[in-house]
């Protein structure tokens, strides 16, 4: 949606959720001249994009407590960053290439070759198949298979047995080197920039409890009462809808499509280092987490070990809900090459976050193009955005931004047609 084309028929629109999905929808609708009001349950914008700053050895280090890597094909994210003058910082390492010291027979090359084989086989599938079944059929070297399965389960943040193989994403299955970036100064800067454009139209710390349809339009209910709108964009994580945490009367076809999504669960851990190490990426296949050191915006490696753990069983094994200690110990054992500082660890567990209750969505075996359509189809004047609605970029920041743009276009057309 280009700037400057005002809608012939401005509407009153509520946006629920100020993550990348909700914010992109709200900004683009506002640019079209619609009246927009964003309701956000947290006291900040950004949702699962959350940048924080740590003081380590007299240095201020920006960490990403949620989404971190900007990968190839993030066109809308790059477009927004260019508009707001936000630079991208090259991480200096590849998100895709990880060493696996627990399986010494596995090299980054053998893993990449098997990953490529699995992706080719996935493209030939004609029936619903889980990733476990696909890997069984390919019958590669057991260590190679264990490493690739771990690589996929960490990134999808859920078990391979419940993941759709035909949708095996480049971002999840690939082990080929490719550059990756983050926004210099923190990914959340994009959320702040988007929010600044509609600053008077965002209410923080205001959870929506229900959306109801009446003869006069839609009513959005919060603890402060009901608010009337013509259209609503619901941009909250899919599992909150599925679990009925936001009351909306959803039809069976929408619930059926939601049921063919799988919830990933993930946590992050940041461990301060005494010195700046080289860039690196090392995973634990056994405990389903990976660790990396990366450049910050000044092309200097930050003195911090970043850890990402995916898959609920393994988060439980690492005793994440009790605090960082067990995981920190495992990370130190995995990375004897690093000199760890004595100061505290920062743990962020998304599966216990009340406004996320998980990390991100994946497709279940049998997820179909019809399901993808159902996820983007409105229910009356209620429209849906969020990473889970973008079939090609599910689970990613880019998917969230694009979903907001798609929802904004749908509403703009609906409002014009109503004219
Ligand atoms: P959210 O960001 O979750 O926004 C939804 C908003 O709705 C939230 O702010 C929430 O507080 C609010 N909300 C919920 N319920 C209500 C309510 N009832 N009323 C009002 N507001 C409500 N993506 C990448 O591209 N690269 C990565 O490297 C990457 N790593 C990740 C690592 C982790 C640990 C996690 C958790 C995610 C990662 N992601 C990554 C995924 C990325 O963060 C998400 O895809 C994206 O940010 C989702 O945006 P969204 O707008 O769909 O949802």
Strand-helix topology:
Elements: E1 12-16, H1 20-31, E2 35-39, E3 51-56, E4 59-64, H2 75-84, E5 88-90, H3 108-123, H4 131-138, H5 142-156, H6 170-173, E6 181-183, H7 188-197, E7 202-203, E8 208-214, E9 217-222, E10 225-229, E11 231-234, H8 238-242, E12 247-248, H9 252-259, E13 261-264, E14 266-272, E15 280-284, E16 289-293, E17 304-310, H10 312-317, H11 325-334, E18 346-349, E19 360-363, H12 369-376, E20 382-384, H13 397-418
Parallel strand pairs: 1-2, 1-11, 2-7, 8-12, 11-20
Antiparallel strand pairs: 3-4, 5-6, 8-9, 9-10, 13-19, 14-17, 14-18, 15-16, 16-17
Report on this structure:
It contains 13 helices and 20 strands. It has helices at residues 20-31, 75-84, 108-123, 131-138, 142-156, 170-173, 188-197, 238-242, 252-259, 312-317, 325-334, 369-376, 397-418; strands spanning 12-16, 35-39, 51-56, 59-64, 88-90, 181-183, 202-203, 208-214, 217-222, 225-229, 231-234, 247-248, 261-264, 266-272, 280-284, 289-293, 304-310, 346-349, 360-363, 382-384. It is 32% helix and 22% strand. Strand 3 and strand 4 form a beta hairpin. The longest helix is centred in the last third of the chain and has 22 residues, at 397-418. By secondary structure, the chain is an alpha/beta fold. The model has no long low-confidence stretch (mean pLDDT 93). Helix 1 (20-31) runs parallel beside helix 7 (188-197), helix 1 packs parallel to helix 13 and helix 3 crosses helix 5. The protein has a 5-stranded parallel β-sheet with strand order 7-2-1-11-20, covered by helices on one side. Flavin-adenine dinucleotide binds next to helix 1, strand 14 and helix 13. Flavin-adenine dinucleotide is lined by residues 16-22, 39-42, 47-49, 66-69, 207-208, 235-237, 240, 246, 266, 268, 350, 355-356, 359-360, 386-387, 395-400.
């Amino acid at each position: 949606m280009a700037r400057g084309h005002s809608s012939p028929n401005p509407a009153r629109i509520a946006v629920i959720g100020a993550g990348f999905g909700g914010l992109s929808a709200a900004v683009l609708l506002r640019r079209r001249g619609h009246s927009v009001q964003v309701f956000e349950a947290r006291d900040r914008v950004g949702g699962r994009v959350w940048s924080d700053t740590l003081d380590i050895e007299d240095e201020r280090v920006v960490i990403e407590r949620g989404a971190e890597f900007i990968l190839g094909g993030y066109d809308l994210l790059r477009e927004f960053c260019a508009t707001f003058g936000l630079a991208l910082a090259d991480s200096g390492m590849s998100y895709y290439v990880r060493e696996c010291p627990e399986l010494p027979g596995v090299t980054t090359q053998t893993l990449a070759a098997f990953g490529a084989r699995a992706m080719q086989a996935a493209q030939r599938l004609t029936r619903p198949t889980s990733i476990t079944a696909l890997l069984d059929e390919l019958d590669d070297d057991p260590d190679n298979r264990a490493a690739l399965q771990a690589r996929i389960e960490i990134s999808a943040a859920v078990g391979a047995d419940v993941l759709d193989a035909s949708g095996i994403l480049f971002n999840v299955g690939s082990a080929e080197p490719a550059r990756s970036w983050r926004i210099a100064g923190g990914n959340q800067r994009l959320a702040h920039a988007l929010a600044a454009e509609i600053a008077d139209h965002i209410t923080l710390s205001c959870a929506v409890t229900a959306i109801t349809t009446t003869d006069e339009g839609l009513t959005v209910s919060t603890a402060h009462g009901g608010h009337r709108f013509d259209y609503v964009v619901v941009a909250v994580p899919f599992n909150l809808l599925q679990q009925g945490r936001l009351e909306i009367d959803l039809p069976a076809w929408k619930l059926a499509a939601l049921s063919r999504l799988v919830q990933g669960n993930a946590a992050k851990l940041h461990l301060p280092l005494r010195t700046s190490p080289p860039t690196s990426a090392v995973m634990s296949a056994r405990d389903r987490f990976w660790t990396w050191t990366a450049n910050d915006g000044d092309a200097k490696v930050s003195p911090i070990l970043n850890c990402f753990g995916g898959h609920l069983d393994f988060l439980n094994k690492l005793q994440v809900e009790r605090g960082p200690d067990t995981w920190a110990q495992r990370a130190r054992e995995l990375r004897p090459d690093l000199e760890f500082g004595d100061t505290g660890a920062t743990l962020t567990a998304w599966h216990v976050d009340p406004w996320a209750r998980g990390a991100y969505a994946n497709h279940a075996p049998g997820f179909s193009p019809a399901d993808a359509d159902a996820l983007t189809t409105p229910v009356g004047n209620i429209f849906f955005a969020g990473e889970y609605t973008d079939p090609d970029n599910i689970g990613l920041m880019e998917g969230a931004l694009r979903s907001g743009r798609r929802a904004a276009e749908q509403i703009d057309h609906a409002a014009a047609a109503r004219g």
